[in-house]
Automatic annotation (TrEMBL):
The keyword Hydrolase applies. Its EC number is 3.1.6.6. The keyword Hydrolase applies. Gene3D superfamilies: Alkaline Phosphatase, subunit A. This is Choline-sulfatase. InterPro entries: Alkaline_phosphatase_core_sf, SGSH_C. Keywords: Hydrolase, Metal-binding. Residues 26-166 form the N-sulphoglucosamine sulphohydrolase C-terminal domain. Signal peptide: none annotated. PANTHER family: IDURONATE 2-SULFATASE. One of its GO terms (cellular component) is cytoplasm. GO terms for molecular function: choline-sulfatase activity; metal ion binding. It comes from the Bacteria.
Length: 177
């Protein structure tokens, strides 16, 4: 970043740094990067853009599909019609602005949906039969150690998140939910 300043390029350069996945370092007895747990699905994303406040953090949900429309928006370029995702530049301006209700992900036979409070994952056979599901309440269990999916106290959340997952995902949704 200091080199961009030195070269006089900082005022017209957008820098995006992101990881393609998280990493399990023994979490859930996994030593890998692939799963539907938060430790695999949550990835770093840092954006520095001219005219945007610096040093802010947001809890707004974003997805990789949102990076391209965000770059178009930041660069003042009209996005292509086929483009999916939603520009997150409003979050750069105001990190507490209301944002997406959920983010969708997939790994192999697992589809997952993350809201501000919950992560719900559903595993299916190639023909669509459910084989397993997981529900974690991040407000009480951020490390995802207590699967609530089969508890009657969370039947409403399971039903609603299953419906949202089947409606919105796992394929990218051009509506930018």
């Amino acid at each position: 970043m200091s080199e961009l300043e030195t070269l006089g390029l900082a005022d017209n350069t957008i820098v995006v740094l992101w990881g393609d996945h998280g990493w399990n370092l023994g979490d859930h007895t996994l030593w890998c990067k692939h799963s539907c747990f938060e430790s695999s699905m949550h990835a770093p994303l840092i954006v520095r853009a001219p005219g945007m406040p610096r040093g802010q953090k947001t809890t707004g949900l974003t997805e990789f599909i949102d990076i391209y429309p965000s770059l178009c928006d930041l660069a003042g370029i009209e996005p292509p019609e086929h483009l999916q995702g939603r520009s997150f530049t409003p979050l750069l301006r105001d990190p507490v602005t209301p944002w997406k209700a959920a983010a969708i992900g997939r790994f192999q036979s697992g589809d997952t949906i993350r809201t501000d409070q919950f992560r719900f994952s559903e595993y299916t056979t190639p023909k669509g039969a459910q084989t397993a599901r997981m529900l974690y309440d991040h407000s009480k269990d951020p490390l995802e150690n207590i699967n609530l999916s089969e508890r009657s106290t969370h039947a409403d959340q399971v039903r609603e998140l299953t419906k949202q997952l089947h409606t919105w995902g796992p394929a990218p949704n051009p509506r930018g939910f």
